[in-house]
TrEMBL record, chain A:
Superkingdom of the organism of origin: Bacteria
TRAP C4-dicarboxylate transport system permease DctM subunit domain location: 7-415
Protein name in UniProt: C4-dicarboxylate ABC transporter permease
Record-linked InterPro entries: DctM, TRAP_DctM
Organism field: Oceanobacillus sojae
Gene Ontology MF terms: transmembrane transporter activity
Location of this chain's protein in the cell: Cell inner membrane
Keyword tags: Cell inner membrane, Cell membrane, Membrane, Transmembrane, Transmembrane helix
Gene Ontology CC entries for this record: plasma membrane
TrEMBL record, chain B:
UniProt keyword annotations, A-Z: Cell inner membrane, Cell membrane, Membrane, Transmembrane, Transmembrane helix, Transport
Lipid bilayer topology: Multi-pass membrane protein
Transmembrane regions listed in the UniProt entry: 12-32, 44-67, 88-110, 136-154
The family this protein is said to belong to: Belongs to the TRAP transporter small permease family.
Membrane found in the keyword field: yes
Name of the molecule in the record: Tripartite ATP-independent periplasmic transporters DctQ component domain-containing protein
Highest taxon listed in the record's lineage: Bacteria
UniProt organism field: Oceanobacillus sojae
GO cellular component: plasma membrane
First-listed, main subcellular location of the protein, grouped into a coarse class: membrane
Record's subcellular location: Cell inner membrane
Entry keyword Transmembrane helix: yes
Record domain Tripartite ATP-independent periplasmic transporters DctQ component: where: 27-155
Length: 424, 165, 321
């Protein structure tokens, strides 16, 4: 049965059936062969509807829309230009600028996909135009986007909190230092990787000029972060505020929203939105049939039933999460595994908040691991000429960094727990 | 025949515009909710719920357009490395499989909506929206997908979708 | 269940026909209802000597409360448990649990559910295709907020309170507050950042979700008796051998009693815990309850409109004593 699903998915994907339909059709076939057909088929519309029936998900199309407005109007370009003038004289300066932008958008949105969409749409064409190697840029953006769920606000942390009863506020605080460390590591690594491109420093006049031009774009994250942390709106609603602001800036300041521009904005938003949401539907359908056949549960339980030391179990858990992360999307993995893992982790004496951060980093890995990795798909969606293989090759070093980071957190759990214990 | 082909593509494109409008409406409703709640202390009872329906609609109305414009992500590992003949064959197979999924989605989606209608299920909120209305997006999206995959099959292995839309 | 059935079930479990039953629900493992369900499952498996294989999907792994109705009705799972509030959207009579002050004590609720009221609800549910196995009590609903102590219905005026479900929202409106709808995952942050002023739930959930960290005041007004329903797909049920049906029904009845007993203890324990964690608690004195009930009458009207004659019948039953 496991072979049916892994082999089936590989076959469907390789003959060129889009990912969303491969996942969905495999779920249908699984229902037909293993779960007495028609009963199960009646679940298809129920699960499809349920996949999208979540208010927090409405943020996603709105962030896609915002990123399109930012791109088409030129707001994003100016913002990026500012970051590049401040950073470009460093080796791989634009890479640093890109991670910087990723961090800002991570602090705006709770979703990694939204972060990758927003920054990717601006940074990808710009970096490639300036001679950065595309594969490196794609890897950087896919990985940089994942910071969206480690740096608060974070949808997976909210979910972990609601599944376990661990305080979401504490989880958010716990994410701050790991988020900053991972951000800096990404900056340093990408700067070294792309060190050959070093542009001549911008003059102070140029920097200030770009900053002045980018002021409207900079206003955006400030208003959004300020609005979220002062409680004026929720992270989900922040997306709508972002769209309205971006729209007003494009309309009143940049004055370049023509009917043609608007048409382009609408149609590319629709495409990206339907692409991502339909993958979520496919993944949820597959998740439903796998769960009802108890496959993920069996894998997890087999790994933890071994009579070995807590750390061996911990390593096995991480391997299981890595494997599940290849095939399922993050929400499904959390919902399936957290209720099983949480009691075990606490019984073994691990700190539940520390483990939550380990889980979130695993979810970051899931977003960039093939064959099913939403961030990979988002970047592919930005430009048809991008291939999944190229993106995956680019992302490998970052995946290694994340795995090493998990190891680091095992040796220094204080990275996670320090702020939680010392901030009220 | 040719006329039907073009009309079908036009239908898919109209659905895409509708999908985009739903995303715009979601933005406006959510923004309105923030303004009335934060400035006037008067939250709406409809913004959150209707936004969710609109986003569900935006996905199902837009997905056929994404098929026709090749915006759905595919793994091109093999497709890019085989000769033209094999590529055409693979395109037929994958589009036929896509069609199969779409038919199942539309068919069972339709029966689901019918059942919801008969039971008179409403939303659990203050609005008590008859649930068959938002659920109707599923069979509609399914039918649009069926049309899109049939057009793909008519095109054969050639990428006729995309830019001409 | 009569004593005759009991003797049968005490015989060897080997006599049961093999069956696989999938049971889905969405409550955390340490909730007392979850513990009841796990015990229910364990007993059935033991008594049938493993012939009846119960596959449990807890914590929303498979289905959330919202999807449960339709999945259960179409046989996606054989058994499912979710909140009566959700069922009210399909079977309006189930809204009786959301009618403020319909049940004022645990004992009263237990008696009603074991009596005529329970029978009416069971038959309403069977009409759409679900047999009710168990009324699992969740506990009384209360209000937590971060503005000021709520010591009378007037104190609710102008507050923004996170709400789920039609009737609880109408209750909030009846007291002059505004219901706010936001995703479940955003409530904690919404309360923390004061996007909303308060939320309503049972104290068991408030402890579980650490509401004490983000709200200061708890009002114990026992305005509603939250109920969860364990249902089984009727077509599936009718196909089961009588012996199996008897075993399941008996075990469900035992579990229902255990949960009802536990609900009271858990409500008391978690209330104490919220006090210990530093929340300022106002418990509405018994003599004030008629006042709170009177102010909630618009919700009674609304329930009558939704549930029609059956609704009126149910209201007479709960108001009759
Ligand atoms: Na974030
Ligand atoms: Na993955």
């Amino acid at each position: 049965m496991n072979l049916f699903f892994t082999g089936g998915l590989a076959a469907l994907l390789l003959i060129g059936l889009p990912v969303a339909f491969s996942l969905g059709l495999l779920a249908v076939l699984g229902m037909y062969f293993f779960n007495d057909g028609s009963f199960a088929f009646a679940q298809i519309p129920i699960i499809s509807y349920k996949s999208l029936d979540d208010f927090t998900l409405t943020a996603l199309p709105m962030y896609v829309l915002m990123s399109q407005i930012l791109v088409v109007s030129g707001v994003g370009r100016d913002l990026y230009e500012m970051a590049s003038r401040w950073f470009r004289h460093f080796p791989g300066g634009l890479a640093i600028a890109t991670v910087f932008c990723c961090t800002i958008f991570s602090a705006i949105s709770g979703s990694s996909v939204a972060t990758a969409v927003t920054v990717g749409a601006v940074a990808l064409p710009e970096m490639v135009r300036r001679g950065y190697r595309k594969r490196y840029v794609l890897g950087l953006l896919a990985a940089g986007g994942t910071l969206g769920i480690l740096i608060p606000p974070s949808v997976p942390m909210i979910l972990y909190g609601s599944l376990t009863g661990v305080s979401v506020g504490k989880l958010f605080i716990a994410g701050i230092i790991p988020g900053i460390i991972l951000t800096l590591t990404f900056m340093v690594f990408s700067s070294i990787q792309m060190r050959h491109i070093k542009e001549k420093p911008a003059t102070w006049a140029e920097r200030w000029e770009a900053s002045r031009k980018a002021i409207w774009g900079l206003l955006l994250p400030i208003v959004i972060i300020g609005g979220i942390y002062s409680g004026i709106f929720t992270p989900t609603e922040a997306a709508a505020v972002g769209v309205v602001l971006a729209f007003l800036i494009a309309l009143l300041v940049y004055r370049n929203l023509t009917a043609d521009n608007l048409k382009q904005i609408i149609l590319s938003t629709v495409k990206t939105n339907a692409m991502i949401l339909f993958i979520i539907i496919g993944a949820m359908l597959l998740g439903f049939i796998l769960t009802i056949l108890q496959i993920p549960q069996a894998i997890t339980e087999a790994a933890i039933s071994l009579d070995v030391s807590p750390w061996v179990i911990f390593i096995l858990i991480n391997i299981v999460l890595l494997i599940l992360g290849m095939f399922l999307e993050t929400i499904s993995i959390l919902v399936i595994t957290v209720p099983i893992l949480y009691p075990i982790i606490t019984a073994l004496g691990f700190d539940p908040i520390w483990f939550a951060i380990i889980m979130v980093i695993n979810m970051e890995l899931a977003l960039i691991s093939p064959p099913v990795g939403l961030n990979l798909f988002v970047l592919k969606g930005l430009d048809k000429k991008n291939t999944i293989i190229e993106i995956v090759k680019g992302v490998i070093p970052y995946a290694v960094i994340m795995i090493l980071f998990i190891v680091l957190l095992c040796f220094f759990p204080q990275i996670v727990t320090y702020l939680v214990e010392n901030v009220q | 025949m040719n006329k039907l082909y073009h009309f079908s593509d036009l239908l898919i494109k109209w659905a895409a515009y509708l999908s985009g409008i739903l995303i715009f409406i979601t933005t406006i409703m959510t923004f309105y909710e923030v303004v009335t709640r934060a400035l006037f202390g008067m939250p709406t009872i409809w913004a959150t719920e209707l936004s969710t329906y609109a986003i569900i609609g935006s996905c199902f109305l837009g997905t056929a357009y994404a098929v026709r414009t090749y915006a759905h992500i595919t793994v091109d590992l093999i497709v890019n490395r085989v000769n033209e003949k094999a590529r055409v064959a693979l395109a037929y197979v994958s589009n036929a499989l896509g069609l199969l999924f779409s038919i199942i989605l539309a068919w069972y989606g339709f029966h689901h909506v019918l059942k919801t209608f008969e039971l008179g299920v409403t939303s659990t909120s203050l609005l008590r929206i008859p649930m068959y209305l938002p659920e109707m997006f599923i069979p509609i999206g399914g039918v649009l997908l069926i049309i899109a995959f049939i057009l793909q099959l008519i095109d054969g292995g050639v990428h006729k979708g995309g830019d001409h839309l | 269940a009569c004593s005759n059935d009991k003797q049968e079930t005490e015989a060897s479990g080997k006599e049961y026909e093999p069956a696989t039953i999938r049971l889905a629900y969405n409550l955390p493992a340490d909730h007392h209802i979850s513990q009841g369900v796990e015990e229910f499952v364990k007993k059935i498996e033991e008594k049938s000597d493993g012939q009846i294989d119960m596959q449990v999907f807890a914590n929303g792994q498979l289905l959330t409360d919202k999807d449960m109705n339709q999945s259960l009705l179409t046989g996606g799972v054989e058994m499912g448990m979710n909140s009566s509030t959700i069922w009210a959207s399909t079977v309006p009579a189930m809204g009786i649990f959301d009618v403020p002050y319909a049940f004022e004590t645990y004992e009263e609720a237990g008696e009603a559910l074991n009596g005529e009221l329970g029978n009416v609800l069971r038959s309403e549910m069977e009409d759409v295709g679900v047999k009710v196995l168990m009324f699992a009590d969740y506990g009384f609903g209360q209000f937590a907020n971060n503005k000021h102590p709520l010591e009378s219905p007037e104190d609710f005026k102008g507050l923004k309170i996170r709400s789920v479900g039609a009737l609880p929202s109408e209750f909030i409106q009846a007291y002059g507050a505004s219901p706010v709808f936001m995703g479940g995952g955003e409530v904690y942050m919404g309360l923390q950042r004061k996007t909303v002023d308060g939320a309503t739930s049972g104290t068991t959930a408030m402890v579980q979700r650490n509401y004490d960290e983000v709200t200061d005041y708890l009002t114990v007004n026992n305005y509603v008796y939250f109920e969860f329903i364990l249902g089984v797909n009727k077509d599936f049920w009718d196909e089961l051998p009588e012996k199996t049906q008897n075993l399941i029904e008996e075990t469900a009845n035992e579990t229902e009693e255990w949960i009802r007993h536990q609900t009271k203890l858990e409500d008391e324990r978690t209330l104490q815990e919220l006090k210990d964690r530093g929340m300022e608690v106002y418990e509405v004195p018994e003599e004030d309850i008629p006042l709170w009930k009177e102010a909630s009458m618009p919700v009674w009207e609304s329930f009558k409109n939704e549930a029609g004659d059956v609704g009126e019948e149910l209201l007479d039953m709960v108001d009759g004593e």
